[in-house]
Design goal:
This protein is an alpha/beta fold. The chain contains twelve helices and eleven strands. Helix 6 crosses helix 12.
Length: 294
């Protein structure tokens, strides 16, 4: 191998890769925790080192040049290799200290994680736990998280997954709302009421129809991607929501408006990169989450 020909800086390569993936210098700077001028200098330094122009800079956007498009695939391989090195190195760590990043849905992070983390705090008080509460899947290969709690089994063979105790989702509405509109006695009555949508309501219509409840987007005057916001909207009488039974039952002002509606099964999976199974702190957190969630 001609080592002198690959003398560019990895930080510059990473700056180019993240800028290309994020689509702008400002977004890439946020992702890397850098200032935009610093990131711009790194990209310019890579262009100078390689002797090519990677981006066409316009007043509105950054566009990859043909050279940038052709080289991007190689830089993606470099990025994957760097992440694999990080994963492998982390897997050799034996200290029960340091940082562990847990990714979970807004629902899990709010209602299921805190009781488990109390036990973790007693067991390993020196750990620093960071929680990403998002309904977007974290990429464990790229180390966006060390451990993820998901509601479907991962298909990636590089990931280690353990199925946990699932739950069921039921209809819930505030007693105040049902006092105002009347408690439905049939599915037809239920179809006349308002619902609070989670994410995009149109994506849930087929699931509801499979249970005999034929709704349209007109039933949803309010929707949100946040489970906690949806819960608050339901508690304040904006309509009917669908929540895990443990979550709805925790609020005495809520009730199931139509117990005959078939509950929706929710799977729960605990996921980590296979290389992290040998890391003591990741393994400890993984096992405690598995035990606490069930």
């Amino acid at each position: 191998m001609e080592w002198r020909r690959s003398a560019f800086d990895w930080n510059q390569a990473r700056a180019f890769l993240v800028t290309a993936e994020e689509g702008s210098l400002s977004a890439a700077a946020r992702a890397l925790g850098l200032t935009q001028p610093t990131l711009s200098r790194q990209v310019a330094g890579l262009e100078e080192a390689l002797g090519v122009t990677l981006f066409e800079r316009t007043s509105r956007a950054l566009l990859l040049t043909q050279s940038g498009i052709e080289l991007l695939a190689y830089f993606r391989m470099m990025g994957d290799a760097a992440n694999n090195i990080s994963v492998a190195a982390t897997g050799q760590s034996e200290a029960v200290t340091g940082h562990v990043l847990i990714s979970a849905t807004n629902l899990m992070a709010t209602y299921f994680l805190p009781p488990v983390l109390k036990n973790l705090r007693k067991t390993a008080p020196d750990l620093q736990i960071e929680i990403i509460a998002s309904n977007e899947l974290s990429d464990l290969r790229r180390r966006e998280a060390d451990i993820a709690i998901r509601h479907s089994r991962p298909k990636d063979e590089a990931l280690f997954a353990k199925r946990l105790k699932g739950t069921t989702a039921h209809l819930f509405a505030s007693k105040q709302y049902l006092d105002e509109v009347g408690r439905p006695k049939t599915l037809t009555d239920l179809e006349k009421l308002k619902f609070v949508g989670f994410d995009e309501p149109a994506l849930r219509l087929g699931l509801m129809a499979s249970r005999g409840l034929n709704l349209t987007t007109a039933n949803f005057n309010f929707s949100t991607s946040s489970t906690t916001v949806a819960l608050e909207l339901v508690r304040q009488g904006f309509g009917i929501g669908i929540f895990p039974i443990e979550m709805g039952a925790a609020y005495p002002e809520l009730e199931n408006p139509f117990p005959g509606f078939e509950p929706i099964s929710i799977e729960t999976w605990l996921v980590a990169h296979r290389e992290l199974r040998t890391n003591l702190r990741i393994r400890l957190v993984f096992d405690l989450l598995a035990e606490g969630i069930g």
